[in-house]
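[agent] plan:
  1. take the single chain provided in the ticket
  2. run structure prediction with default settings
  3. attach structure tokens to the ticket
  4. add a short note for the reviewer (M.T.)
[agent] executing step 1
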Amino acid sequence: MEHSATQIIERGSMPERMGFSKSQLGGHRARSIMSKELALLFSAFPEDAPPAAYREAVVNLNVLGKRTASNRKYSYECLKDFYALDPSVPLFRGLRRIWKNASDGHALLAFQAAYARDSIVRQTASLVLSKKPGMSHSRAEMELAIREQTGSKYSDTMVCSLAKNLNSSWTQAGYLAGRGIKKRIEPDIQQHHVAFALFIAHLDGWRGLSMFDTPWLRLLDRPKDELLRLAEGASRSGIIRMMASGGVIEIRFPGWLTIEEEALLYG
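[agent] step 2 finished; step 3 output follows
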């Protein structure tokens, strides 16, 4: 059965303490999701590496191979905006946990985390998700979507940069293909993407079957029955634990959260 204890975290509240961000302008102000750079960092550090280690690696040791000091610093700030780079943050810790268990599809995992931490990509997501495979997609369309959400808040230069970076992120994640005028394609959705989306929904206060109707699962752009099948596969693989009884579904994440974090979620 679903957990009946009173929840401290309200459903859909996107609590910052769990790793969400509602800031208007995140990493897409200057970069795409930088999935290749994130992979380099994850290959260089263990899961429990402290936040200072990531900054030292990017800014001082230049493990990402950036040409200038300002570029190194800016790259670090954007990566931090996208992913937190802090093992005390449940969302980031969950990303690292699922990342090591996935043999591929890492760019989409990165995009899922960035989606929870950058409001501009959430605000404009319907533009991409509403398109069927094969439909065209341009930067001008993304610029218009940004303007519709933000009005005159940003300069034309900033809107152009945001649109370019957002389109690059969607491309890295596998939703778009091509250069210039892009085409909508279907992303390769696997068990670990569904498991991570469910974990994000869990952090957002959702439980049971309702988790499959949240933005975190809708991002994966698959019918609910397919998502359920993939979630069942993730459970059989031991990534998550999914149980069904009498039409009620319970999904657990053994070892993903501390006792204190579980207390915040469940009361």
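[agent] step 4 note for reviewer: Residues 25-103 form one domain.
[agent] ticket updated
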